[in-house]
Specification:
By secondary structure, this protein is an alpha+beta fold. It is built from 17 helices and eleven strands. The chain has helices at 2-8, 14-18, 65-71, 82-91, 116-128, 134-151, 155-167, 181-186, 189-199, 215-226, 274-286, 292-299, 331-348, 352-364, 373-386, 392-401, 405-415; strands at residues 24-27, 33-38, 44-52, 95-100, 104-112, 205-211, 247-252, 257-265, 307-313, 318-327, 422-427. Strands 1-2-6-3-5-4 form a six-stranded mixed sheet, sandwiched between helices. It has a five-stranded mixed sheet with strand order 7-11-8-10-9, with helices on both faces. α3 (65-71) crosses α9 and α5 runs parallel beside α10 (215-226). The N and C termini lie far apart (57 Å).
Length: 432
């Protein structure tokens, strides 16, 4: 029976994906805000819930606490131990997953309409009454510790953590979400219980529901799911002045290829230049094989197979990042070429042909993000968290179409600064 929900949840939702998506702003009887898309053609209800807070709220001496806590959320709840919990989920064909991020924790649920009542009560119990039993807790702890040990020798993990720790030395962003072997080993049941009570609060909840359910029923089940969760206090972000140390920092590791991560301050999502910058980035490094970085680093010089750039916005910081992995003998030249393209885009900008091609791809590929109920719900959650407005999905393409060449050039000149790039290289790079 579980297999049926997996298969059905991947079916195309052709109507909303290709036409305007009808998003309802629903308030439950208890006052919880829900964004709802009714899709009655498939007997599945997809629920996405985010609780603001996440990793950035971990105490400095308890790094990895949020990660550990949410690694335990499907290991038993209420009167069900880990085995019984898993069996109950199978019996009612309920899929429930948990994730933790820098700024939030997320709950993803997929329920069959025919077992919606049982699944609602099951999710309510799971969220409000996790058990944190000794045996699964030690098993999950061992898994986390194993992951930490593996990351200590993984060049990509080392590069990422080193970049973030240098960019945010006195902030939770600079600490590994998994924690350290020392911090994870010291975490107790009381620590996990405290984190659960602090993070799972309705004041910080954002909800999206898509599927065969109407507004009245959506409000009813959310009230039941949240009934025993505390309201809590709103986690208010504090915007940071982002200034990663410029220049190259090398972490030597005896591997045949070097991994390089580059980045500097980016642009906030509510900035008028964000959409122009988003389009510009597609041309510079976000467009895969069609980007300038790929053309110059891979196609013309054969320096690396993959090179990329992207805008990244967090609750307390906005970044512009890039990365490349290549042979030790080629990483120095690869970085030079990336910086040259960074500077060229800032100084010369892009052409009208570049802009037109980027717009065509970015608007044409957008509907592919909505080929299932779960993808629609996930995107609705993102829009809520980013405070883009309930009409964003239906107006996003028009915002991209409206970007002018002058705006894209202005965004490039304003944001891109090759001299400000903070660069971390892990490997045995030659010439750095």
């Amino acid at each position: 029976m579980l297999r049926s929900i997996v298969a059905a949840s991947t079916l195309l939702v052709a109507g909303p994906a290709l036409a305007e998506i009808d998003i309802q702003n629903v308030t439950s009887p208890a006052g919880h805000k829900i964004w709802l898309v009714e899709e009655p053609s498939i007997p599945i209800v997809s629920i996405e819930i985010a609780f603001r807070g996440g990793h950035r709220t971990d105490p400095a001496d308890k790094a990895g606490l949020t990660n550990f806590t949410f690694g335990m959320m499907n290991e038993g709840a209420g009167d069900l131990d880990a085995v019984a919990w898993s069996k109950r989920a199978d019996d009612i064909s309920a899929r429930i997953g948990f994730d933790n991020r820098l700024d939030r924790v997320e709950v993803s649920a997929r329920f069959l309409v025919e077992t919606l009542e049982e699944s609602t009560d099951f999710l309510a119990m799971t969220l409000s009454k996790p058990r944190f039993d000794a045996e699964p807790m030690e098993r999950v702890r061992r898994q986390i510790l194993s992951g930490i040990r593996q990351a200590e020798t993984d060049p990509s993990e080392i590069a990422s953590q080193t970049w973030w720790s240098r960019a945010f030395p006195d902030h939770p962003y600079g600490r590994d979400r998994s924690g350290t072997a020392e911090s994870v080993s010291a975490l107790t049941v009381a620590d996990l219980q405290e984190a659960h009570g602090r993070l799972m609060t309705t004041a910080n909840a954002y909800i999206a529901i898509v599927g065969a359910i109407d507004a009245a029923k959506a409000g009813e089940i959310i009230d039941r799911i949240f009934a025993e969760l505390p309201k809590g206090e709103v986690f208010a972000p504090n915007t940071l002045a982002v200034a990663p140390p410029p220049g190259v920092f090398v972490v030597e590791q005896d591997v045949p290829q070097s991994v390089a991560i580059l980045g500097h301050a980016g642009i906030e999502r509510d900035d008028p230049d964000f959409i122009p910058a988003y389009v510009m980035n597609y041309i510079l490094g976000g467009g895969g094989f069609s980007s300038r970085l790929t053309e110059e680093v891979r196609e013309k010089r054969g320096l690396a197979y993959s090179v990329y750039a992207y805008l990244s916005v967090y609750e307390e910081a906005a970044l512009y990042m890039a990365g490349v992995q290549t042979a030790n003998e080629r990483v120095a030249e690869s970085i030079d070429v990336i910086k040259e393209e960074w500077a060229r885009m800032a100084a010369e900008g892009l052409t009208q042909e570049d802009l037109d091609k980027a717009k065509t791809y970015l608007t044409g590929s957008f509907p592919l993000r909505f080929d299932s109920n779960s993808k629609i719900a996930n995107y609705l959650l993102f829009v809520q968290l980013a405070d883009l407005g309930i009409d964003y999905i239906n107006t996003r393409n028009s915002l991209i179409e409206a970007v002018t060449l002058e705006q894209a050039k202005r965004a490039a000149a304003r944001i891109l600064d090759p001299d400000a790039l903070s660069i971390v290289v892990v490997g045995k790079p030659v010439g750095l």
